[in-house]
TrEMBL record:
This is Tryptophanyl-tRNA synthetase. The keyword NAD does not apply. InterPro entries: aa-tRNA-synth_I_CS, Rossmann-like_a/b/a_fold. The gene is WARS1. Residues 16-38 are annotated as: Disordered. Keywords: Aminoacyl-tRNA synthetase, ATP-binding, Ligase, Nucleotide-binding. SUPFAM superfamilies: Nucleotidylyl transferase. GO terms for biological process: tRNA aminoacylation for protein translation. It comes from Homo sapiens.
């Protein structure tokens, strides 16, 4: 799987993947002519967000592409019911629009099964920067409302 991901990266970036090193030319080399598909129009990676659509990025396509699930009103209501607290404003305002495994976390919490939270720092630079703060703020909120341990990989 890792070899496949590295090959996909090389095809999109035109160079081999190097940890902590953004590509020199991150834009995909795709055909934006009449034969170009809509999927080729949106490009998102850790360094670039690009679309040729006047409507902007199609977040529903990103959810499919990255294998996550949409954060909908039903999930936000479930979080509020389970925790007894108002959902974080990142959820209420749609700043976070997708998730992975939040239903498993809620199932464990509702069934009083132990779990912990695990997050980390992305390889966007050699040092921490203000961009790392957003997921840490939200994860800290999750730690507080679920009263569980939090592991942060650096």
């Amino acid at each position: 799987m890792l070899v496949s991901l590295k090959m996909s990266y090389k095809a999109a970036a035109g160079e081999d993947y190097k940890a902590d090193c953004p590509p020199g030319n991150p834009a995909p080399t795709s055909n934006h002519g009449p034969d170009a598909t809509e999927a080729e129009e949106d490009f998102v990676d850790p360094w670039t967000v690009q679309t040729s659509s006047a409507k902007g990025i199609d977040y529903d396509k990103l959810i499919v592409r990255f294998g996550s699930s949409k954060i909908d009103k039903e999930l936000i209501n479930r979080i509020e019911r389970a925790t007894g607290q108002r959902p974080h404003h990142f959820l209420r305002r749609g700043i976070f629009f997708s998730h992975r495994d939040m239903n498993q976390v809620l199932d464990a919490y509702e069934n009083k099964k132990p779990f912990y939270l695990y997050t980390g720092r992305g390889p966007s630079s050699e040092a921490m920067h203000v961009g790392h703060l957003i997921p840490f703020i939200f994860t800290k909120w999750l730690q507080d409302v679920f009263n569980v341990p939090l592991v942060i990989q650096m």
